[in-house]
Amino acid sequence: MNCTHVNFAMNRRDFFGRFALGLGGMALSGLMNRDLLGAPKSNAIKGILGQPHFAPKAKRIIYLFMSGGPSQLDLFDHKPLLKKLNGHDLPASVRMGQRLTGMSANQATLPIAASIFDFAQYGKSGAWISELLPNTARMADDLCFIHSINTEHINHDPAITFFQTGHQLPGRPSIGAWLSYGLGSANENLPGFVVLISKDRIDQPLYSRLWGNGFLPSNHQGVQFRNGKDPVLFLKNPDGISAGSRRKMLDRLAELHALQYHDLGDPDINARVAQYEMAYRMQTSVPDAMDLSKESDETFELYGKEAREPGTFAANCLLARRMAERDVRFIQLYHPGWDHHGGLPNGIRKQAKDVDQAGYALVTDLKRRGLLEDTLVIWGGEFGRTSYSQGKLTATEYGRDHHPRCFTMWMCGGGVKPGTTYGATDDYSYSVVENSVHVHDLQATIMHLMGINHEKLTYKFQGRDYRLTDVHGEVVKGILA
């Protein structure tokens, strides 16, 4: 085949692929999670691995990402010594010259700010939980609290990017994209990776690259489901286009692509047709998955009255359960609003109210439906908050700056040991003193629970084999059931 023919074929392929379905088709082609190497006829769409490296504990993940950095000191990491030292300057022996952000580095003092909220121990596990989270406290024995999470990144964008992609700079695939690439999808009528974002809580930018595919094939990127009439943009047929005419157009397009495939042997051609077919099926499956009208009053009472309001965290948690029932592989919820540099007591009360009942309801609902045992639920943000106050400290008012050296996350279900507290921090919640868990360790553990050896799921790009955990990361065996 000469170069002229190749160039003509590529141009012709671009013409059919980009314009045959119009602008809506262009948008849809990147949304659908099908195997790049073809369009399998079975319901289970396999990833590049074919099957997991070993028997997985979890079949799916619901990741509740608390964007902004929740204060571990006011929610989970109980530090009674700070009440005695409230208002005293943070000792230099504790800080040890660690860098601060530009927002508090120039303060004359760094006054210790004890939490104004009461803590108590709950369940047989005796987990310490703040009064702000009474419903979370009710499920203490289902949860595994990790107090020793740490990262290198002290500002939001690199820290969030690091959690989602394993690297602080943009351009790498997100964790959901890696799982889609490795394992594929278990539902051919829905994307394998879905994203839901709480409305009215945005205090830091959330870029689509956080759930992007990076250098992996584009059909592995996350698909954002929005509240409103059009959950997925460009999914509906344009005015004047009926389902029947769309079906005929897809059939003719498949015939044209078959000729192209016979001519060039490029698997991307078949993948494009498979993506269009997925879009066609999603026109029915997405509205059904997003329709909460079939949920019982008892279910809405469990999740709280906000569950009836589309776009709230509670409504998104209920949708996450519905996606889990439909075997969506990776369900990512973003709940921003945790960046409390000032006015923390009032701000965190509002945030905790958002997530406490809804998070409890999600775990309870999964458990009673028999889904929790193979669904991994993760809760946490990109870093924690400082034990000293940013700005003026009073008896009822304080703020906290970013703190990457130690913070708390919780996990449950899907192979995680319930009723466990893992890792520990010093008396100031400033540094890890027991069982450090780096972000790459957490990512390696998540992959392990899904049946993947994180060192063996790689993708060659620009001459190098890349993986989610970059060049390190160890499975945290102490939290495995």
Tell me the count of domains.
1
Total number of strands: 19
Write down the CATH topology: Alkaline Phosphatase, subunit A
> What class, by secondary structure content?
alpha/beta
Top-tier CATH class: Alpha Beta
Mean pLDDT: 88
Identify low-pLDDT runs.
1-10, 15-44
Q: What amount of the residues lies in strands?
A: 5-15%
Fraction in helix? 25-40%
In a few lines, what is going on in this structure?
The protein is of the alpha/beta class. It has helices at residues 3-19, 22-29, 72-75, 81-84, 92-95, 134-138, 156-165, 175-183, 243-264, 267-290, 297-303, 313-325, 344-368, 439-449; strands spanning 45-46, 60-65, 119-122, 127-130, 143-150, 184-185, 193-197, 223-224, 330-334, 375-380, 384-385, 402-403, 407-412, 420-422, 424-425, 432-434, 437-438, 459-461, 464-466. It has a single domain, classed as Alkaline Phosphatase, subunit A.
